[in-house]
Amino acid sequence: MWWGVGAALVANLLYSVGFVVEKRALGNLPALSAGKPMRLVLVLLTSPLWMLGALSLAAGFAAQLIVYRALPIAAAQGIFVSGLVLLLLLSSTVLGEESTGRERYALGGVLVALLMVVASVREGEDVVSSGAPWMLVLLVCVPALAAGVWLYVRVESRANQRHRVPTSGIGYGVAVGLLYGVSSLAVKGVSSRLTTTDLGEAARSLFGSPYPYLLLFTAVAGLIMSQTALQRCRASLIVPVCTTVTCVFTAVLGSIAFGESLPDDPLLLTLRLAGTALALTVLLAMPRHDPPAAAVPSSPRPPALRPPVPSPPPRESP
User: Fold this and answer.
1) Are 236 and 110 in contact (CB under 8 A)?
2) Which residue has the higher pLDDT, 136 or 287?
């Protein structure tokens, strides 16, 4: 179990560094558009700094495979969400981003909610699942993918309207979070298939399941959606929202799909359900738009110069 916890902490570090490095690189790239995916990919591949961030995320993905071999889904999500603290520190020191007071309170509420979910996991009694029925996994994943893509398209179309208040990125974060939630379940499924040293048998078992194809779709769609969203919005807001949706989705629906049952103890069950409800409530209460930028006071205009009024001619004495 402890090597799974260590792998989760390493994954947190790699994911946080990867997102911050990618955000730094995106600031120096031309505007990306999800409607031009090939151009988007080509632009990203021209940035060595972005490639470094992508490699960090890929290494975090590899660490995540180890985590799901050792920890229950709900416990793993609780450790993953602790990476939000590191992300906020990095976004503040490296990117110079500042969160509003309301957003900081909201993120604190999210941490409390997900800690409640983690507290509902009892060590020694939770069983790490080794598989799930494919149809049940698809029943969970396909609607989530459709909802994520639909929400992204809706937010994108509204953001492109003229004279509209700039979006804070909540909608983008929810949409990408749904895709990453499906990706997280696919990672869990892949880890359950890599249980043999026979490479041929492992490959047949893996590619005969829906997990690699779910990973392929979420990798392509997630790349396009996440990079355009990350370029337009603050990493200190969009990544925590995305992480919240991913963790809640994975902890709740993933536990059901993979047969990691809810606690029998009433207190633990209440903690898990109340934590999930609190996370969703906080997410819905977060501001949808960034506050308008403060107007820079302009210097007062100097008074217009008036032409001198000619003095009247002197009167002649009689």
Assistant:
1) no
2) 136
